[in-house]
Amino acid sequence: MKPDIKEILSIKYPIIQAPMAGGITTTELVASVSNAGGLGMIGAGYMSASQLQAQIKEVKLQTSNPFGVNLFIPNQFENSAQKNAEAENLLKQIEDELNITDKYVDLPAFKEERERFYNQLQILIEEKVPICSFTFGLPEKGISDNLKKHGILLIGTATTVKEAQLNEKSGMDAVVVQGMEAGGHRGSFTLEGEEKLIGLMSLIPQAADHVTIPVIAAGGIMDRRGYLASFSLGAQAVQMGTAFLSCKESGAHLLHKKAILNASDQDTVLTASFSGKQARGIHNRFISLLQKHEDNLPDYPIQNSLTKKIRAASAAQGTSEYMSLWSGQSPMLAKDQTVKELINNLIR
Amino acid sequence: MKPDIKEILSIKYPIIQAPMAGGITTTELVASVSNAGGLGMIGAGYMSASQLQAQIKEVKLQTSNPFGVNLFIPNQFENSAQKNAEAENLLKQIEDELNITDKYVDLPAFKEERERFYNQLQILIEEKVPICSFTFGLPEKGISDNLKKHGILLIGTATTVKEAQLNEKSGMDAVVVQGMEAGGHRGSFTLEGEEKLIGLMSLIPQAADHVTIPVIAAGGIMDRRGYLASFSLGAQAVQMGTAFLSCKESGAHLLHKKAILNASDQDTVLTASFSGKQARGIHNRFISLLQKHEDNLPDYPIQNSLTKKIRAASAAQGTSEYMSLWSGQSPMLAKDQTVKELINNLIR
């Protein structure tokens, strides 16, 4: 018998708002979810320690219920001057089209990324954040032991049964199993060559059978149908991204929300064009231009830094053609609604 | 309110055994499923009209319950002497390894394929088969009208919402929505370039919202968990392939069954290497050798004919390395059991 996820997270409903990075998880979104009895999550992947601390303090002012923070595990990456130059050359055409004149990019370095991660962890301990989840890998034993010692519940991310087992082994208290339907970045971390894309219908029961920790389902879940199906399949909770991203409280750009509300099941693709890591979003002109060069693009997070100005300029200029329009495979189920309406629909 | 699938198919349980072609759907398998209250299906895609008629007569002797037949819609294909020669050259190394000396291949022609299809349809009418399903496309209006005039219920196959809508428009009485998890051939028929892989968790509710005919879920469903989840998501029935293929009554080669029972969620891939059309199966040496040449392989069903002797010789010589080991993404849920045991587990 697995531990009860609602008990260990101290939440009323087994509903987790996916920790989407890049400004989507506003304090309003996180607090609304937690106040409604779910688990709001700050997507802190790209935040500095001080930004993170500021938002944690804000969230605490707006809810007394548990909430969580998601961090990206820093992974070694290549910084190839040649690849960077090739990518910059590809991006130049778009930058010109968008009249981006200041093309200076402060490239990330692994050492800094790791330092930032350690500083983020320090903030979680300092602020006594009750729950921390991880994407892109697993923390070292020293880190997870330390977090646990401070009473922080740990949630990892897996895209295969094997990754779910590695999560359990590394001491995670629960694991999000992310189906290939999921929007945004894939949390895979054991790839050898080809990406293993497992549908959630297959992933949940197989993972549930092979770990003793609670399984949280993610990918394409938008309404009560996916919510109930996840429990039938053996999950104890759902983690929903696109559904919360479309809510009024989310910080996603209006063009992003509109693109989701207008998309069909066939309109999303997996692409590494925006960040250097595979992520699912709605197909647009940026992807058309970059996708065929994907095998030669710089690693994450270099490519992410190189495309940042383009994405921002696209949004500022009112076109979604060069924005990263992250979305799962169920955009036809998205609704322009409040968090309260979404959660009420799930639990009714 | 959609029509009730159990009523229109006159079945006790909303369980359809997927019509797997190539000798898997033995009379024993089909009749056992129908006798247990599900719907047994003859996978007749590769059968001649006389073979089909013989099996229909056999099935009738073993069950008085409804059963169905699945046909492949014949599609135009290219017969390129150059591509065939290139493929034969690639296959030669394997043929030599397996000591295949008689390399003569009777290549299929579209005209014959279409004639065979018409003859198969004639048999269905003559034998008053109650249910006919289609893969790889939709029958022309004249054909579906004629089958309906003879009281035959029609089921189509879709891999996207758009394909589900085309099924409804063409007069299908129900539609199988095949998630990307599904084993064997993809039923896609509206591809423009890239394959659209939609997970079943996303496909069922979006399709159910956009058609008025009953939706049947297929892909990765192996046990009561996937069965119940499918209904939660909006399907009225399930169609299960790998689960029935693994049953004692199926005609799948023992090496094939064994490969499924030993596989993990990560072990299946989509490949056109065996037949010229995308299909999901367990990765083996044949796929390793052919996959990188996939874009230049002959069309279906030419490639299917070219690889036939290799697959047969591999099985005969006791190795599964050159067999087509079709499997969905949930092989870890497969069991060595009887049809009765499988169905009892579903409906318990």
Structure, explained:
- The structure is a homodimer of 348-residue chains.
- In chain A, the strands form two sheets. The first copy, chain A, has an eight-stranded parallel β-sheet with strand order 1-9-8-6-5-4-3-2.
- In chain A, 55% of the residues are buried.
- Chain A has helices spanning 5-9, 27-35, 49-62, 81-97, 110-126, 141-149, 161-169, 200-210, 224-233, 242-245, 254-261, 285-290, 302-306, 308-316, 339-347, and strands spanning 15-17, 40-43, 67-72, 131-135, 153-158, 174-178, 184-185, 215-218, 237-240, 268-271, 279-282.
- In chain A, strand 10 (268-271) and strand 11 (279-282) form a beta hairpin.
- The radius of gyration of chain A is 19 Å and the shape is globular.
- Chain A contains 15 helices and eleven strands.
- In chain A, helix 3 (49-62) runs parallel beside helix 5.
- Helices cover 41% and strands 14% of the residues of chain A.
- By secondary structure, chain A is an alpha/beta fold.
- The mean pLDDT of chain A is 97.
Brief write-up:
Chain A is α/β, with parallel strands linked by helices and 348 residues long. Chain A is 41% helix and 14% strand.
Q: What is the strand and helix layout of this fold?
A:
Two copies of one chain form a homodimer.
Chain A: H1 5-9, E1 15-17, H2 27-35, E2 40-43, H3 49-62, E3 67-72, H4 81-97, H5 110-126, E4 131-135, H6 141-149, E5 153-158, H7 161-169, E6 174-178, E7 184-185, H8 200-210, E8 215-218, H9 224-233, E9 237-240, H10 242-245, H11 254-261, E10 268-271, E11 279-282, H12 285-290, H13 302-306, H14 308-316, H15 339-347
Parallel strand pairs in A: 1-9, 2-3, 3-4, 4-5, 5-6, 6-8, 8-9
Antiparallel strand pairs in A: 7-11, 10-11
Helix pairs in contact in A: 2-3, 3-5, 7-8
